[in-house]
Amino acid sequence: MTSKAAAAAKYILAYLSWPLVFFFGLTGAYFGFASAHPMVAFAAIYAGAVLLLFLVERIIPYEERWLQADGETANDIAHTVLTKGLVELAALAGVIFPMFAAALLQPIAAMQFSLWPSSWPMLFQASLAVIIAEFGLYWAHRIAHERLFFWRFHALHHSVTRLWVINTGRFHVIDSLFKIALSQIPLYLLGAPLQVFWWLGAVTAFIGILTHCNVDMRTGLFDFVFSTPRLHRWHHSKDLREGNTNYGENVVLFDQLFGTYFNPDRPSSTDIGIKGQIAPGFVSQLTQPFTKDGVRQILGLKPKRG
Ligand SMILES: [Zn+2]
Ligand SMILES: [Zn+2]
């Protein structure tokens, strides 16, 4: 390929990669959910999208420096597996011990309303779910930045010095549970069916790997509706005037409504990270927010003497 043709190919890739991963991912999910093994099919599609982004990161990286290892890959994967695995384990326990699960969930099930518009086409039900869940996600995320009690858990996610597809799921398990509670319990109480939760999970999964990938994507008008890599990079900025913005997980509606939408006309920052220190190992990263000295480290304060 001539250098001109290569440049043209990269240009097209920059514009196509976001819609390609998002819309093809969701189309794949559509067929996956209709198959005999919906969760296995979805996991395969998701893994394919991660691999694709991993490759595109090497072709058109946003920041060359972020291609280099930071020693955190194993921790990133361990946090992802733990937080995702915990939800799977809860579901598995429900299958293995149905009586126990029924006894535990019965009081919650009794509170469930039947307000959910189950007769709507799934596209509208899923879109409604994304917006309702986003209200909880937005506030969980904003509180995690504005309240020190919650920041101690969320700082782990912001401690990365490179953004790439693999650190999408680097969340402290408490941070994740807080977000899941605020976003999914309202849907459950409204009586949303299981399929709606699948779709919400699919949208969150694809938007998530897109927002963190180190691909020089052009997202144009998508920046005004969805949480895109461009917007989320600002959110990871060390400069808090830039970083305490763009809290949206999937869509940016509530950032626009509550005045935290940030999309200036310049390339988003690559100076990312936090002032404090995160512990080096996986287990100490989990326990750090529970000790006084650990919290002081996270906040970038000196340990107290005596
Ligand atoms: Zn954040
Ligand atoms: Zn992030």
TrEMBL record:
Keyword Transmembrane: yes
Residue ranges crossing the lipid bilayer per the database entry: 12-33, 39-56, 89-110, 122-140, 187-210
InterPro entries documented for this protein: Fatty_acid_hydroxylase, Sterol_Desaturase_Related
Top-level taxon in the UniProt lineage: Bacteria
Major site of localization recorded for this protein: membrane
Compartment(s) where it occurs, according to its Swiss-Prot or TrEMBL record: Membrane
Domain Fatty acid hydroxylase: 128-260
Record keywords: Membrane, Transmembrane, Transmembrane helix
Record keyword Glycoprotein present: no
PANTHER family: STEROL DESATURASE
Name of this protein: Sterol desaturase/sphingolipid hydroxylase (Fatty acid hydroxylase superfamily)
Source organism (scientific name): Rhizobium viscosum
Taxonomic classification: Bacteria, Pseudomonadati, Pseudomonadota, Alphaproteobacteria, Hyphomicrobiales
